[in-house]
Amino acid sequence: MDIPFVLKLLFLLISIGLFYFYLKPPYSRHKRNILKSKTILQKIHSFAHAGQKMNYLRKIDPFVFEELLLTAFEKKGYSIIRNRKYTGDGGIDGLIFDKDGNKVLIQAKRYTSYINPRHLDEFQVLVNNSNAIQGKFVHTGKTGKQTYSSYKNTNIDIISGSRLLDLINTL
To answer: What whole-number distance in Å separates Cα of residue 138 and Cα of residue 111?
Structure first.
């Protein structure tokens, strides 16, 4: 073996290592938030009271909340599609498909008080303008009686309170 061959081999190995290091996909924020959501689910299950669980859900990162919900729907048997980015998603935080393959839009909101009916109105426009059969508006706040009754017989399913806790308790 001559030295130039060894140097060429060493250069090739270093080049391959640098190429792999700089071109490998970075650890995505989505993966990190999915992992965080699983950790949060474990912590939530340790709380004894529903109020503690809801208060904790109101405080977590909104993107982690989205991932937590999508994971919950996945565990309930839905096929899911996660967004590639969190902002600029047009108000759709994820897609799920029921057992018949029907598309359902998901919107996740963390509220501390009553929900803003305008958010529901905007979401319903999105659902009606898509080829989805339903929209699931999942939130941590309170739904006023008038707001709830306005959407009771529509294609918008409002999930909050005990229904939200039931959804995440299946995990």
So the answer is: 10
Q: What would the two tokens of residue 66 be? A: 């989205």
90-137 pLDDT tens trace: 678 889 998 899 999 999 999 889 998 999 999 999 999 998 999 999
> pTM for the whole thing?
0.79
How big is the CA angle at 78 (ends 76 and 82), to the nearest 5 degrees? 115
Read off φ and ψ for residue 160, nearest 5 degrees: -155, 180
Q: How far apart are CA 41 and CA 170, in angstroms?
A: 10
What would the two tokens of residue 138 be?
């999942």
How confident is the model over 29-69, as pLDDT tens digits? Answer: 778 888 898 899 889 989 999 999 999 999 999 999 999 99
- Return d(Cα 88, Cα 75) in angstroms, integer: 27
